[in-house]
Structure formats: C-alpha cells, structure tokens
Amino acid sequence: MSRTIAAHLVFGAIYLLLPQAATAAPITIDTVPIGNLGNSADTYGIGLGAVSYAYNIGTTEVTNAQYAAFLNAKAASDPLGLYNTNMASGFGGISRSGSSGSYTYAPISGRENKPVNNVSWYDTIRFANWLHNGQGAGDTETGAYTILGGTATPTNGLSITRNPNAAWWLPSEDEWYKAAYHKNDGNTGNYFLYPTGSDIDPTAELPVGGSNSANYESAINNLTDVGAYSFSTSPYGTFDQGGNVSELNETLVSGLFRGLRGGSFLTNEFPLRASVPQSYDPTFENPSIGFRVATVPEPSSLALASMGLLSIGLLVRRRRVVVGQASSSSGTEAFRWTSSGGMIGLGDLPGGGFFSNAYDVSADGAVVVGSGYSNSVYGTPIYEAYRWTSGSGMVGLDNLSGGYASSYAYGVSDDGSVVVGMSESGGVSQAFRWTSGSGMVGLGDLPDGGYGSYAIASSPDGSVVVGWGTSASGYEAFRWTAGSGMVGLGDLPGGIFYSTAYDVSDDGLVIVGRGYSASGQEAFLWTSGDGMVGLGDLPGGSFNSTARGVSADGSVVVGQSSSAQGTEAFLWDDANGMRSLKDVLTSEYGLDLTDWSLYDARGISADGRTIVGTGVNPDGDTEAWVAVVPEPSSFVLAGFGGYFSSDAHSVSADGTVVVGQGTSASGVEAFRWTSSGGMVGLGDLPGGNYYSLATGVSADGSVVVGRGFSALGEEAFRWTSGSGMVGLGDLPGGAVRSEASGVSGDGSIVVGHSYSALGSEAFLWDDANGMRSLKDVLTLEYGLDLTGWNLRGARGISADGRTIVGYGTNPNGFGEAWVAVVPEPSSFLLAGLGLSDYPTASKFRMNPPCSRTTCNRKRLTMKTSATITTTAALLLLSNITDAAPVSFTGLGDLPGQFFFSSAYGVSADGTVVVGASYSGSGREAFRWTSGSGIVGLGDLPGGGFSSIGYGVSADGSVVVGDGLSTSGQEAYRWTAGSGLVGLGDLPGGNFESQARGVSADGSVVVGKGSSASGYEAFRWTSSGGMVGLGDLPGGSFSSSAHSVSGDGSVIVGEGNSASGFEAFRWTSSGGMVGLGDLPGGGFSSSAQSVSADGAVVVGWGDSASGQEAFRWTSGSGMVGLGYLPGGFSSQAYGVSGDGSIVVGRSFTSQGREAFLWDDDNGMRNLKDILTLDYGLDLTGWTLDEARGITADGRAIVGTGTNPNGRSEAWVAVVPEPSSFVLAGFGVLDDLTFAWDLDGDGLFDDSVTNQGSGGLASDSVVFTVLFAPLSAFALALSIIPCAVASPTSTADELEAEGAALYDFRNDVESAFSALATELALIGGGFSPPGLEPIGNNLFAAGNELRLLNFSNAANAMEVEGAALYGFRNDVEDGFSALATEIALLGGGFSPPGLEPIGNNLFAAGNELGLLNFSDAANAMEAEGFFTEAYIQNDGTAVVGNGDYAETSYLYLGSTSAAGHLVIQSSNSGADLIVHDQMSLQGGSTLSLTGDYSNLSVSYDVSVSSGSSISQTGGFFDASSSPYFDLSGEYLLQGGSLWASRVSVEGELRQSGGYFDAYELSGGGLVEVSGGNAYVQNLNDAYGGIEVRGGSVDMAGEWVNSNVAVYDGDLELSANNFWSYNSSLTIEGGTVGTASAPDLILDSSNINLDGGVLNLTNLDLFESTYQQSSYLGNTPSAVIQSVQIYGSNSSFSVDGGELSIDYLLGDYSSQTSADIYGGDVSVSHAENLTINQSGGTLAIDNSAGGDLWIYGDFGTLAIGDAMDDGEVISTLNIAGGLLQNQINLDLGGDQVSEYDQILVDQFYEYNGGGTLSEVELFSLAILEVDFVNGFQPEIGDQFTIVANDTNLPIAATNSFASPHDPLVPLADGDIISSGYADYLISFNAGSSGNGIVLTVVSVPEPSGAILMLGGGGLLLCGLASRRRKRKKATY
After folding, report:
1. Owning domain of residue 1068
2. Residue span of the signal peptide, if any (predicted)?
3. Sorting pLDDT into bands at 50, 70 and 90, what band is 1453?
C-alpha cells in the first residue's frame, strides 16, 4: 500500500453537550456559509433554490442538547407547550423533572447529539426568536417572527412571516433547498437530486458510511448523531439534509401547512429527492420531524468563502504532505498541503463542472490521485479518476471499457506508478488497477458475485490490492494479486455477512478493515495464518468500530470506534489492544488536547509515527489533524464473539493484540484479543448501562483504553490485566462524557476528549496528574499562546507520547486540525494545519459509495436440489460448446417525435416483434423484423392518431392491438394485405375495445370491450365476430382477456369476483373459472399469459409480501415465484410454449428489472444472465421488463432504458435452454460418485450412497458424474454445507431459505451446532431430548422460531426472524425472552403473566404480538411491538396519552375482522407502524380527535370490505411506497398524507386535508369538502370527482379521468400534462386562481358548466368541447389555444369563451368549430374556423393564414387599438394576392345568410384624417346557395355591414373575376356562373356597406365573386347575432 495517512474535515461542532442547569451557558449553533449570490432556480422543474443574498445555515439539525438549553431558559412552567412528553421516550432525547414553575430539562445520556424531534413548527420559530434575542431570557414571541396570542398555537399562525431584521430564523424552502441540492458551482441553476452531492440514491447504511450515505429506510431504525455520516455532505457542507429527521422550513403551503423537506430515518429514498416537496400541519409534532436554523453570515466567513479556503478533507504522507478537498474560488477543489508551501489547489479535469477531490498521495508526495468532474452526460458532470504530478498536472485515467464513464482513484503505490480504485463497467462497479503501460484493468469480482467491487488500497509496490467485492455470501473484503486474482477474506463470525478491507501492510500480508461479528460492526485484522480477527471496540458506546489504516509492518492499526464519548479515533497494537488515541496523546505523551475531540483516525504512516484524522476542535468546529509521535515500541490486534457485530479499533505494534468492541451476554463490551487467548471481554465500568468500547491499545498490548458507562455517565477508561477497567473521570463542569481515543506505546499516557464547562475538550491523562485539559497543559505548563484556539479533541498519540493530533476551532472560528509535537519534555509545538473555514468531507481509504446497483446484487451461481453428506461439493456445469448464437438487439423507434419504443409481443419463432413507438403522427403500433427493422402500422381511420400492437400470431403475419377510429378506441387485426381492420365493440356500452392476444394461426383474437354490463372480456373470430365472455360471479361487472392458447380454446385474464379482482381461465366447456389468489395479502390477481396448450397460466397476485408473480397449473394451483434479491413486487407477463420458463419484471431498489424464472434456478435477473452467463456486453442498458417469450424459450422481448437514457424495445436471443445448466446435487439413493484426488483429470475411485442414510462422515470430496459430459466442462467449487438427512423416507423435509437444517438421529448434538436453525418436524418423528407440544411440534429452549398457533390441533406456521421459546417450563423461556413473548391460545395461562380476556397475556410493555381473539377482548394497545395482530372481531384502542410502535400491523384475516380505534381528546394518541399495515375481512380503523396520530412507513393495504374512517388527527403514509385501497376510506376531518395510492374501492373526502403524490386504480375518489393536494394521476381510470372543497393538482394525468361538479380544482404545475385522460367540468371552477398551462395529449376537455381559466391550452391529438346542453352556462377564459394536428378538435356550442390567441398548426390542417355561444378571439392564425351559429368576434390576426367558413353565423372583424398602432393584414382563405371569403346564402333575410361586420377602424400610420375604409386586397368571395334556396332577380344581400361613419373605398377595392388586375367600380355587373350580381358600394341600411343585388338568375351553379381592394384597417370588435344553424357534413 502507499503509505498514506488520512484525516477528515467537517465544519461545525458535531458533538455539543450543554450543562443541564437552567442557567446554561449560551449554546453554539455551527453554520456553513451559502454563497453563489443570485444563483438560478433548479432545472428539475421545481423552480426552487434561487437565493439572491448570502446567508449561513446550520451545519446540522438542532440537537437535543441545544433544545434542552432552550427549554431550561424558557420552559420552567411551559405555557407555550415547547416540551412534548414523547421527548422522554421512544426516539426522543430530553427528560423533564420537577413540577410546573420549576421544570428542568436534560438531554438523555447517549442522545445529546441526536436531532431534537417531537417539535411543532411554532416551537421551531420560537427557538429562532430566542436565538435572535441573545438566548438566555430572550423573548420567544418577538424578534425574527412576531407571534400573537400567547398560546401554543398563535392566533396569527397562518400569517406569520419573517421580519426584515431577523438574525436567526427557520430557513425558507428556497434557502433550505439551495443549501441541500445546489452544486455550489457559481450562480448557476445546477442542482443534484439528493442532498449528498449525488443524483444516485444514497446508500441506507450504518454511519459513518460512504460518500453517498444517509439514515433512511430503517438503516438503523433509529436516529443517528447529527453529522454521523461524516463523508456525505451537501456541496456546501451540511449534514443530514437527507434522512435522520425530516426538516421543517418557513414556507407556507396551500395556506394551511408549512414546508417539510429531506425525509427521515423512517422514509424511503423518495422524500430525500429535490423533486419531492412536502408540507406539514404547523401544530403537529412527530418523532421523525426536526429542524435546523439559518442566520446572517459572519463577515469573516464570507470573506474566507470568497477566498476559497473552504476545506473538505486531507491525506498525509510520511513527508507530511497532505492532500484532500477544499472550497476555492472556482468551486470544490483537490489540494496538496505541505508545512512549507501551505495548501495549493490542484485544479480539475476539463469538460465538467468544477469539482475535484484527492484521496491518496505517493510516498514522496509527488503523485496525487483522486477523482474530478470531466465530461458531462445529459448535463450532469460525471467523475473520472485522475493522477496528478507537478509536471503534468491533473490527467484523467478514463474508465473501464464499456463503463458509464465514472471512475474514482482511491489508492496509489509508493512510487506513484500503480493506481487503484473503482470504475463503472457494464452498469456495475468494478475494482481496477492502473499502470501507465497497461492502462486501467478491471479486477473482476469475487466468485458468484455480481461485479460490484471496489479497490481501496494497494501495497507500496502495487502488487497487492485490497478492497471489497460481492460474493455469494454478501459483501466481502478481498485481497488481489496478479497470481491469485481476487480472493475473499471472509467475515467475522456471527453477524450479517459484510466486510470491507481499507488498508494493507507493506508486505501485503496484513490487512485491516471492518466486518460484522456477533456483536455488530467490528474492526478486523487479517493475516493468512489467523484469518480475519476482530479487534473489538472502545468501551461505553454502541458496538461499532472500523480499522482505517495499518503501519508498514502491520503492527499498528488506527481507525474509528464508538465509545462512551461518542465516536473516537483509536490506536491499536497487540500489547495494549485498542486505545483511545486522544488518551494516548494526552496520557502518554503529555499533550494538552483540552476541548479537542478526536473523532476518527484515517491513516498511519509506514513507520507508525504519523497519524491523521478528524476531530472537533476547541471552537466546536470539525477539523482535520495530524499527530506525530516518537518511534513506537510494539503494537497488536484483538476481537471475536457475540452477536455478529463487532468492530476492531486498534492493534498492538507487533499485531498480536487486537482491541475493539463486541456483544457479550451482558451487552456491548470492550474486548482484547490475542491469537492464543482469543477474544476476552474487558467488562464495563460499574454502575451504568452495560456498554464498553476499546479504542486503543499500547504498543505491547498490555494497556487498553476506551470508554464505558459508569454511574456518572460515559467515561473514558484504562484497562490492564492487573487493575481491570478503571475510569479516568471527566474534565470538570460539563456533562459526564469522556472517551479515550489513543494511548502511548507504554500505556502510560491516554488522550481523548471530555466535556467540560466549555464544551468538548481534548484531554491528556497520566497516572500522576489524572485527566487534564490538553490546552491547559500546553498553555500553562509549556507557555504556548493558544489564544482563540479551542482544542475539542485529541484523536491520536505516538508510541513515545511525543506527538498528539486532534481537532479544534482556530482563532477565526473555523474547524482546523492540529498536531502537537513534544521534541523535548520542556516544550510543545501545536501546529494547525491551516484548514480553516468550512471543512466538509473526504476520507482516507474511503469506504467507496455503494449504490444499490453495485452493492445489492448477488449472482446466483447454482441451486442445490438436495444436500450432500459431510463435505458437500456444489458443481457449476458451464456450457462450452455447441451453444446457439446469443444476441441482444435494441429495436430503435419510429421517426418523427421523441425517441420511445416498447415491445409487447413476439412471434413463435422470434423473428417478429410488435409494440408501440411514437412517429410524426403520434403513438403508433409497430412490427419489427431483423430485415425490415421497425415499421409503423398506421392507425384506424377517422379518429385521433394513436395505436398500439399487443399480440402477434405464431408466424408473425397477424398483429392485434387497438387504435383510434371514428367511433373511439377500437380493437384491430392487422395483416400485410388488409392493414389495420377494426373489430368493432360489444353492443350496449360506450364504444371502447382492446385486442390483447391472438391464437397461433391468427384466427382467434381476445381482449376487452365495453358492453351494456360494463367492461367485458371478448373472443373474436371472423365467422362469429366479437362475443363477450361474461365475468366472474359476485363482484361488480368487469373482465378483460389478456392471452389465448395456441389453438384459441383457452383464454386467460382477470375478472371481478365476490373476493375482488381475480385471475380467470376460460374454456368453451367450463366458462370463466377464477384461479384464486396467492395467500396472505389482500385479494387481487390477474392472469397475463398462458402456455401454448393452455395448461400453464402466469400473472401476478397479492401475497403476504406484496404483489407477486405467479405460475398456475391445475395440479399445483397458484404458486408465487418470489422476487429478485432486494425486491418487493413482481409481475409475470410471458411464458414459454411448454410453460417451463416465465418472464416478467420485479421491482427492486434499482427500480424495474426484467426477470427470467425456471424451476431449476428460480427467479433470476435477466440482465445478469445475459451478461454474466452469456457474456453479452449490455453496458449502459437497463432492462426494465420482459413482456414476451417465444414458444421454445430462446427469444425474449421487452423494454429497457438504452445507454442514451431513452426507453427502447429490445429482443434477446439465447441458446437452447437445456444447453446451459446450473446444478446442485444432493443425497440421492443409489447414486455413484467419483473423485479426482491427484488432479490428473482421471477419476481415482468411487463410492455408492447407500440409500437415505447418507455417506460416512469421513467421505471425500467428490464430483458428480450423471451430467452429459460431452457437453460440459466440470468445474469443482468446494462449498461447505450443513447436513440434512431424514431419518426415514417418510420424514420428508423441505429445506427452504438460506439456512440448512439438520434433523439427524443424533439430533441433540446437532442442536448445539445449529441451534438457531431448528424448524418444524412432522410425520410423527420425536427428536430425542425435545419436549413435545401437541402431536407434531417440538421445541428446545429458545431455539424454536416463531410459533403461530391457528387451531387446537397445533397447526403452526414457521416464519419471522425472531426466536421464541414455548416449552412446558415456559416461565423459564419467558424470563429469558421477555420481549419476545407472543400469543398463546388454547386456554393456557403462562406463569407470571397478567391475563387479558381469555387467551391473551402480557408482561408490561414487552408484548411482541397482539392477536385479539374475540370482540370481548378489546384492549388498549400501548408500548413497543414486533407485530400487532387484531383479529377475530377484536378491538384495540390507542387512547389519550398512549404511544405504541409496531413493525407490522395486521387487522383481521380472510375469515374475520379486526378493529382499531385511535382516539384522543386532549393529549396525543400515537401509533407508529414501521413496516406495513393491512386491513382485511371487513376490518375497520377509526382515527378521531385532533391529537390522534398514525404513521405507516411501508405498505398500506385495505382489502375489499374493509374501511378506514377519519374525522380528525393525522395519518402519515407519505413514506409508504404502496397504499392499496380496495376497500373504503372516509375522510371527514384531520389530515391524510400518502405517497402512491391505488384506489380500487372508494376514497371519499368531505373534510380535512388529503395529500398524495400519485393516485391510480379503477375505484372512485370523491372530494366534496376539505382540501386535497394530488400531484399525479396514473391509470386512475376510476376517476376523481370534485363535488366541493378544493383540490390542487401539480403533476400530470396519465390514463385518468377527472370530473368537476362543484368546488375548486387548481392545476399548479408550470406545464400540466395530460395523456389519454379526460377532464369533464359541469360546475365549480378550474384553474381560476392559478391560470395554469394545460397540455393535452390524446386527451379531452368537456366544459358543460362552471368556469375554466387557463393561460395556455395545447391540443395534441386531443379535443376541447364546450356546450350548454345541460342547461348550464359554461365560461372559459384562455390566453392561448394551440391546436396541433388534423386529428385535434376544438368546438364551442354554448356559453362564453374568451381567447387571446387561437392558433392552428402550420404543418397540418387544423380547425375550430363554432356552433353556438359567444366567442371572442383577439388573434387567430393558421386554422379554419367553421362557424354555423353563435357569435365569433375577432379583434385582430397577427399574421399567418386564417380560413373563415360559416353557416349563417356572424363574423365580426375589428380591433380596439391605440393611436399609432399598425394592424396586421387579416388574410381570409389564402395569401394576399388571392384572398377568399366563403359566404352561405340561405335566404334573403339577414338571419339567413353570412355577413361580415366592420365596426371600428384605424389608419395604417396613425394620425391624420381617414376618409375611407379599405377592405381586402384581391379577395375572392365564394358564394354558395344552401338549403335549396334559389335567389330571384332583385334579391339583395348586405355582405359587408359597415357601422362606421366612413365609406368603403371603391377605387382599387375589388377586381374582376375575369381580370384580377382590373379594379371594379360601383355598379359593375359580375357573373358568378349561377347568378349575375350588381355590386354596390356605400349601400345598405347604413349607407356605407357592400350589397350584392341579383340582376339575372341562370341555371344553378357555383358563384365566385372577385373582390379587390387595399389593406383592411380593422380596430375593434362587435358582433351581430345570426340565426344559429348547425353545419351538416
């Protein structure tokens, strides 16, 4: 490895403890400056983040300690309700003592630095006022905000705004948003999607985590200390703006709520995004909601920020070269620091936004490596690894071939020639090794992994690389050499499988990192001899340690550990174990680290003398530090034991002693490990909670330091074998909290940090002087001038005690690392590293960012079909020859619009694919072949253009789907000869049909139509036409057919039965038969495809785990297919001809992923199969779903995201399925095995399995010989397996899941080895040594998994992760497993438990499962539960003052209901559900009262027949990814917040507030009162009806229906988009306040009443229809209407409509139809107006072509213009040289013919006197006689009525039809061919119009009259009503 040391810098005090007295000293709120004044708003369309002024924002959220100081100052009697009693329990962190008038408050030990929660919005602004007014006795009601009323809820609550002179305040949403998401790259509009400086989902993991990590999605199921994710900051350096607690902001939302942002530890990643705003009732208080504050910037911080001194991280070389990341004037920039030259920026790579970071540096400091922004993808800069030298500057290293162009360099060899890191390749992360000769070379991944690997460090010569990869077991540390490749190092025993290597010794033989042991996360030291050994933890904290660096000889280890003090840097050696580095520096080397807290040690030099890390300096700021110590003597390593969660923190000089933290029977305990003695617990300090952590160890391993819990609190300790663990006390004046972080080589000096009256201070301890403030030692004893310095912690000390490093706050008030060196005992030197201003984040040997794409995938290599006795060999049989061609092809798209294609069907031979794309006409069905490519199939004639292809015949000659015809949506059948032919619809319903499937020969088509009964499945043949198939009995009528067997005899789909939506299978003989549903969930299933013979059906159902793909046969019934790893939803869409292969999609943390299922391998990721098994390069592709598969299973089609980020159809062709086998072999009767022991390729011997008894225990490893060897190469992979041997053939056993079970005759011995794996044993078998329970159930102590008794016969379900014990001596089990007691039925009364009703027993709040047996046993539910069951008509009540939590809440079952009431009147009634809640069987949930709160973090399911009613309180389901409402929800009051709600039942709102991100489903959503906010409608075909109240929508509509009858509908998005949706308005108002932009795509608006107000209306293949046929008078005001395409329509038949701009489409014929009503248009262009009634008034046309037609309507032309304004020419039907006006003459009365009205005018150039009105130039007047009218001689028609007082110019006004250049004069005769007319100017009733007089009438014919004249000057608008007559066509 390159001998580097690392430290990490973060600005602001992370750990802040306050005295608990009411007279506490003023608190410090650390902030970061937010610059880039005048930046633009974001580009995500949210429009937030633009802030024109400078401000500072809190580095972290406000902590419990800070808020407790506020309470002590202002809440002695608390009349304003600033304290919530929930703060003292659950996730709270503040206790209250005393009585009203003398209340005192204190942060709860261990939770001081967690964010305060359970605060209302009003509490937060009162806290800001208090800060504004100087703290202490400062007023809470005035200052930054003026608060009136003197009560908890102010009288002016909704009108409170920030006062202009505010000094501290709650940030606005723009301020909060900018600090979180803006890229800090100047005054740009560039923003990240997440507040961790990333557009990729942060990893939900334990802190410290990587560079993109956060506390959300139950990462630890609790709050973390603020700033715990020290490497995941926003670009400005804030912590935790994503996750931990959601944060309130100042902005008023919807007039009722206040803004909320960032998500919490209970939410998924969705609320963390920039694009997801939230809001919250200002009176509500919640354990997942907190806040941070903002303030005016300090002048010094602004100046420093502008100078670019914003430090982010550092690394240090043996020559004291420091590299890292800081903020410069250009942006965030990598730097290189030396003591002589200071900090020098290294610039950035060209092409991207300015951002770079340095991660490592060569031994001589000449070569620096890291990552920076290079080129950009879709506007987002990406990272590229670089190598820097002073000569070449920063040179990018590119990325692995085929990668996504993202790479990071993490380590470099001593000479700088070898660089290691990570690059994305093929869509996943891959470790690389770079040299100048070979370039970047990928190192692959561990066997059976998913190519997610990171290289973190290398040996000095670059020959050994370490990091982590993914193996079959999980995330695993690796060691790589050129000879061995990547070799996994395993993990510590007992915990989850997860290990990471961070550093390696010079010889490559010692590796350190972090794993998971039985105790928790634990540092480890690995050698080839001892393997991975845990190093334990420092005492007193949660068990969590990580080894970050190791000395050249592997004897000294440094890192980070939790301790009683929080998190501390440790130093480990074998002699002393793990010690607090600060303790070492202070105690052994005499450094005064007063007020320094050494948070983490990130690296150590080759000689072990120099250590760097991160800490909190005396000023409370986080600062990097470097510690230089004398030559160490010796050091070692320790670990192992307990629950699999331990962490090694330090190692002795010689590597023989490791110390750290593990979990013992007593609790979390410090340990010391040696190879001879193993891991030995060191106990804990007396009197406190049992918790200790070893963070450092002396050189010889004899002295261990850390922290523990004593009676006083968290206390540093020093341990020796003679004295045991001895507390080191605390510095005076503060809360008792100290931690030892380091220890000198001989163990005599300990350094760390403690809390004094001044806050956190570094300490130095030795036996003679005890614990002293390090600053005091340096200043008082050694005379150093440290004025302005605050040494907040010491993080490390050298072996000789001469050098101490730590962190503090420098005189400028910023975090800065320091090193104190003791050259001679008489003098000290404190060296700050010059890293002032705001240091944020970098780290040495960085735990690389772990996206879900790279970390959560595991490649399934094989599946065992049985278990092999003793040492089992699993064999991978890999295809090597005779494989059919493998290919993957993107199908492209149709030209003309945006890039999009989607595949839905494939022919039997795979040569033809069908689907849909977008052409220039719109959405269009396509047919693809390899020869022709993608070809559009057009659409049905007459309707708007939209078609789609769903199914294709076996030979590809017939395609079926649906299009838009004149009648509406219509099923079609296509052939090359006939084109698209509509199939009609079922009789009686609204015209709407779809074709979804077709038989093999193309003769039978199936789908869905609209009959008189409703939607109905149909079967079509050419002879019989379309025939309805009916529906399943019992439910409302609705069915749909999706697929048909090859011969057309079997049809599958879904219907609506009495149970709900249900998959069906139809045959002519049996009719429609329901297939049921998967067990456990709400009832809902759908069949999507059927095998060729009709025997196998696939689709999806609703299981206990959620929506799940199924496979059905008559024999097996419906069987769930599971999910992809990490998945939570799956759907099957296609099945092979024989039914053996199923394809579809599964939703995982990565999004949608296509899967392939077969019986041998289960469900697998299709992309993994194609890339890993078949070697295809799918770099940049994401396969979202597989929709079809050929009969032979070789070709699969679907849709994915291509490398350009666009949706594209694809086809994948694979070899014959049988040619690729993944086989696991087990114990088989009479099976012959052979083995090759000497490796010569020949089998040496054989052995025969003698039946089910299994092989002898000493059987050799073998290779199985029953595979077809000619087709396969046999590769032997030895994997030890547990043993499963049934005692008899009657004892069948199913081994399912990851665990293997042992049921041998000597079962008692197996229990000791596999105690936790005992499952259910049936068949009458009685295991020895087990107590029987009933007939077939046995338990041994607490070794039995969850028991759920369903009846007296002791039927039982084995499920869950918890272990429960129910022996006959059950009281013993209860005492050991108090918190795990579940329900015991059958009248059994456990000793020591209080009975509740007949069958329920509880011990305090320890009940883990609520299962109410009958309605009489109603019970008040309060406490913490694992699972809550409310069943058998039982009722549970959460009442006043109750607080309950559960992971799962189940109301009712399929056979009986359960009932839950949450009610409050004067205090909180809170129920928190951390996972999912379901209601079934007619269950009810009632939420009443203002103080009732229900929060559900995951799925909500309300089955049909069940209901929720809410009249008050707050139901928070905003974190639930799915809210399935098949029952009923009645919202009459209170607030309901949800994310995605699928309504198949009914949701009716008559009051309160409803907030949802998305609505979908076929059920009804009705709003008749209250307020609702719905962002998106997606497949909400059941519709939302607005009948009162107010509804605000801010996103888009897709396949949805909206109707407004009363109330208000606001569309608040900037551009509201609607696709295939409808908006019907019969009353109320739409868009009145917001006047939004509305874009209709294949959608329609029907305005039959009410008021519509829009800014812009764009019609794409869409319809606007306004009428008054309901007797209403609709009214619409639209600023601009743009009509695109000939298939769009715009018609008015009543009411009033005002349009500023009515615009057609240049490229196609567009029109507007006026049948009635009053229409006013200011400007009209490029369209035909068909007017057959009503009034059309056109003020002016601003260019373009306007055609005006009519049928006895009035065209009023004019323009009300200002003086001097020039009007554009109105072109009527043509260009200027051939204008045309079409007039219909139906009689000689004015009401019977068309007329042009001129009522105002103005001249061209303004001013002067106008003598004439000039009409059109060379206008052609077309006259048609209609309705049989034949004129007679003398008939007159006033075709132009001139109401002005000026004549119409005759000279040059009109031209002869026979000679357009000859002007006509008054009195000329013009022959039209049908009649001759006399033209009279200045005629008519007004005396100045134009009149045609018939002078002769020949035989009827068309008449054309040429009218000529000058330009028309029209200025105004008037109208004359004409008799309305609708046009006929």
Report:
1. 887-1218
2. 1-24
3. confident
